[in-house]
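Notes to self after the Tuesday call (sharing in case useful).
The group wants a holo model before anyone commits to mutagenesis around the pocket. I volunteered. Ligand is manganese (II) ion. Logging inputs and output together so the record is complete.
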Amino acid sequence: MEQKLSDKLFNKKEKGWETINNDEKNEIFSFCDNYIKFLNNAKTEREAIAEAKKIAEENGYKDISSFDTLNPGDKVYFINREKSMYLAIIGTEKLENGIHIIGSHVDSPRLDLKPNPIYEDGGFAYFKTHYYGGIKKYQWTTIPISIHGVIVKPNGEKITINIGEDESDPIFTITDLLPHLAQEQMQKKLSNAIDGEDLNLLIGSIPYENKEEKERVKLNILKILNDKYGITEADFLSSEIELVPAFKARSLGFDGSMVASYGQDDRVCAYTSLAAMMTLQNVKNTAVCILSDKEEIGSMGNTGMESHMFDYFISELLNKVGENRPNLLDKVFCYSKMLSSDVDAGFDPIYANVSDKTNSAFLGRGIGLNKYTGSRGKSGASDANAEYVAWVRNVLEKNDIRYEISELGKVDIGGGGTIAYILANKGVDVIDCGVPVLSMHAPYEVTSKYDIYSAYRAYKAFWNE
Ligand code: MN
Ligand code: MN
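Result:
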């Protein structure tokens, strides 16, 4: 039969599920079972790094400090202050001929405790919070919340907290006004219906027994915390405590085709890139995996991608392979390639009006690439060069990996950014390349298992190129 002209000329956007057989479907589902387990163990950046370290060590990766010299095939990692991590497998090619980087972030939008969090009012004890990253505040009321983080005492003792995940743990919540009395609130704009200062976590209501004491509900909570962790109120001053949804990650839909979970931005790309790296044995160009922190608040600080910690790591690689000389780091970056593995806004038919349908990432069609992000006229974007996009397309196409290249919403509607520009500014060829998500930044985000597996395959193909 003669091929139809449209089949030859149109960019076919196939639905991924219709292109696979039963074995492939089973492979996708079992990969995602492990992803779901990872999500449930990694609800904060520190927990994600602890899990990643465990996975890396099980696969033969060792702390870079344990190597004096590095040779092709050596597998190393570097952990920065328990919150970000770089992994590498040394290639046969010299580093100065370019490295292949995949970079995601392991922090997610959440509520942090204020430095002086605890107070009592109306017979209740509360924790005050300060939200982290771009959230819709109303979504964080009346959901079960768990408490994760660390408290560090002045003597250096570090206490790890994780309450609300185990079935036998209590959970916590932020209350909202009943509709009967919410007339005024309901007239407000969604953006300020819930005030940031009202995101206070309900943590107790039994007063301490000795009536001679004051603020007895607060006191009772502090006593419980003192008995359990040996801490006093002042120890919150040197803590990092994060409040996250207590929901578990689950398969979504009658057909189980999707994953619903907190924190898929960007742990879906962190997990898939890490899993891809664990399959690598011999690579030509040194493969580097970045799990960064602080992306959701601008990548600043010494665990964010803007810091010089990454340069330091690559310099250490150069030193230990015995290749370093003045300014060589700049050359490494200028010859390197990167996939900035961060999530993309998935097309949501219920909110179709914010998207340009011909340039949207649809769930279930494979990995989503953004040539550029930014907002209103590409402002702040690192626009990938056409030559590099072609190189990436070639890698995906010859490995039969489905992908779509899209924009984040309509031109004048809004926009966003990732860590892409940071590496691009160093001279690296970078394109955004991740999994499309529905309800991004919400307590429960939605992804397609087909896309998750496509991301894993895409990252593997990129590093093996
Ligand atoms: Mn992200
Ligand atoms: Mn984000």
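Two things stood out.
Residues 105, 265-266, 295, 342-343 surround manganese (II) ion (ligand 1) (CB under 6 Å).
The chain has a mean pLDDT of 96.
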